[in-house]
Design brief:
The protein is an alpha/beta fold and 265 residues long. It is 39% helix and 22% strand. It has helices at 6-11, 20-27, 37-48, 72-79, 83-96, 110-116, 131-143, 156-162, 181-195, 211-223, and strands at 2-3, 52-54, 69-71, 100-104, 123-127, 149-152, 170-175, 196-205, 228-231, 235-240, 247-250, 253-255, 262-264. Helix 2 packs across helix 5, helix 3 (37-48) packs across helix 4 and helix 3 (37-48) runs antiparallel to helix 6 (110-116). Bound molecules: S-adenosylmethionine.
């Protein structure tokens, strides 16, 4: 495993294993592009919301909530995709020209909002089992003009069993629900073999949420030696078929000397 210290790498950029182009356009997230603004605003609105939802949990549970009656602002804060990751995913999407995204675990649609707004002709399919969440999110996305996101109200298992797999249709998958090793490994395999093109990116969130999830990530890395596996501690990114160094690379967010901006490398 290659372990990289960000600060060091930024100072010694020329020695870093990724190209300057990849560092500047994907790993350096200090420059927020115009396409990020809409999703960042959506996230900000959810953080200010006074609404509540009764959420039915279909996954491995949540450590942040004591019951199912939840404030939207808390859901956004606790289980929503954080801006630095959303921006990083957008940079990946922009750099590799990703147009078709599938997400497992919609919640409030925060990640969907990021995925859908890089290219105007992109298409996002997002699966969520909780009907109340789907109803709330689909209204919110509509009001905020996210018109290229399709929500599917099914459990992940039902989705895989009942839907036409759009054989090799998607370029990017985000697994962000049911954080259990065997579930995640099976979603990963199903996505790779039936839903994703041969050249693809899969992001698995919460790879250090539990020992079980950590072990799922290790297994994915072990089984995908021909891919580039970026370990950002919170999430793991498996990039397959693109011309990048292979193996696992641990990347951290660090503060630039100016202390105001984030880098990810
Ligand atoms: C961490 S949240 C997703 C956050 C979202 N991706 C975002 O960026 O805001 C996980 C979501 O997955 C849903 N979920 C968990 N297990 C599921 C399953 N087995 N089938 C369908 N949905 C599931 C939960 O209801 C929850 O809304």
């Amino acid at each position: 495993m290659n372990f990289c210290n960000l600060e060091y790498l930024f100072r010694k950029k020329q020695n870093f294993i990724f190209s300057d182009d990849f560092i500047t356009n994907v790993l350096d997230i200090t420059k927020v592009e115009h396409y990020s603004v809409k999703a960042l605003k959506y996230y900000g609105e959810l953080l200010k919301s006074n609404e509540t939802i009764i959420q039915i949990d279909f996954g491995a549970g949540s450590r942040g909530f004591k019951n199912n009656h939840r404030k939207v602002s808390d859901i956004a804060k606790i289980s929503g995709t954080k801006p630095q990751y959303g921006i990083f995913y957008q940079k990946l999407i922009s750099y590799f020209g990703i147009k078709k995204v599938i997400e497992l675990g919609t919640s409030l649609g925060i990640a969907s909002a990021y995925f859908s707004s890089v290219f105007s002709d992109s298409y996002v399919v997002s699966v969520e089992a909780c009907p109340n969440t789907v109803e709330f999110t689909s209204n919110k996305l509509k009001i905020n003009n996210f018109n290229n996101i399709t929500l599917i109200n099914k459990t992940f298992d039902d989705f895989f069993n009942e839907t036409n797999p759009y054989y090799k249709y998607f370029d990017f998958a985000f697994i962000d629900g049911n954080h259990r090793k065997f579930a995640v490994l099976s979603y990963f395999e199903k996505l790779k073999y039936a839903y994703l093109k041969d050249v693809n990116i899969v992001v698995i969130d919460d790879i250090n949420w539990s020992l079980d999830m950590h072990s799922a990530w290790q297994e994915i890395v072990k089984n995908n030696t021909n891919s580039t596996c970026l370990n950002l501690f919170r999430c793991g990114v498996v990039i397959t078929g693109f011309n990048l160094p292979r193996g696992e690379f641990c990347l951290n967010f660090v503060k630039k000397p100016s202390e105001k901006e984030f880098y990810v490398i």
